[in-house]
Recover the amino acids of this structure.
């Protein structure tokens, strides 16, 4: 399956700052990528679907102005958490869609102090 | 009723045991089904895709029952390394498109 990387793997930031997370498809040109968030002991929650060259589709309840997604190329999508607050602390995971299967990046653990 | 339901467990089984998990889904138009395993604080890894009636890969067997709307995962000869959370994922039509719906996962602990 597709190989996906994420950077950074973890980040600690102060409340009010912005954090950018990169998701790269290393061996596959990904038209569609997904961004998820996972809180402790909970399942993955889809935040948005990122399509190359077009605007991302956000799930209900996810603020598009707070979670900025850019999918400018077939190998890179970025998620920027703007004005982060402690409640944004979570595990953020991206995935790429290859045929009908999703392959996940290793995730980014965000802690906002 | 949840779109995708799993028994959260934990299932505690001895090494060498056979264990089965079920996952039920609510939308009969669902097209494809997947089992992922997720280790603590790690990303999900694809274990098996199920497009027709079932799939087998070594000690792992997945079966799909469309009439009863469930997918099962059978693990034979459990190893300590099988300890993880197993996520059921269903690709179903939602508002004119297809979405991947995740179950909450079933925790498995294989005991020495």
């Amino acid at each position: 399956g597709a190989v996906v990387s994420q950077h950074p793997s973890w980040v600690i930031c102060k409340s009010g700052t912005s954090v950018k997370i990169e998701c790269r498809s290393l061996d596959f040109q990904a038209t569609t990528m997904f961004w998820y968030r996972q809180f402790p002991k909970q399942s993955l929650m889809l935040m948005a679907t990122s399509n190359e060259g077009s605007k991302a589709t956000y799930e209900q309840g996810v603020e598009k102005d707070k979670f900025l997604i850019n999918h400018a190329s077939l190998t890179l999508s970025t998620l920027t958490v703007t004005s982060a607050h402690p409640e944004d602390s979570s595990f953020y995971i991206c995935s790429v869609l290859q045929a009908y299967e999703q392959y996940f990046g290793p995730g980014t653990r965000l802690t906002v102090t | 009723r949840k779109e995708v339901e799993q028994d959260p467990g934990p299932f505690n089984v001895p090494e060498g045991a056979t264990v089965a998990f079920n996952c039920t889904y609510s939308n009969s138009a669902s097209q494809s089904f997947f089992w992922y395993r997720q280790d603590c604080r790690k990303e999900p890894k694809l274990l098996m895709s199920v497009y027709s009636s079932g799939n087998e890969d070594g000690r792992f067997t997945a079966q799909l029952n469309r009439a009863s709307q469930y997918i099962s995962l059978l693990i034979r000869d459990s190893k300590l390394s099988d300890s993880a959370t197993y996520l059921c994922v269903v690709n179903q039509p939602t508002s004119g498109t297809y979405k991947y719906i995740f179950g909450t996962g079933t925790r498995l602990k294989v005991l020495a």
Summary: The CA atoms of residues 16 and 72 of chain B lie 19 Å apart.
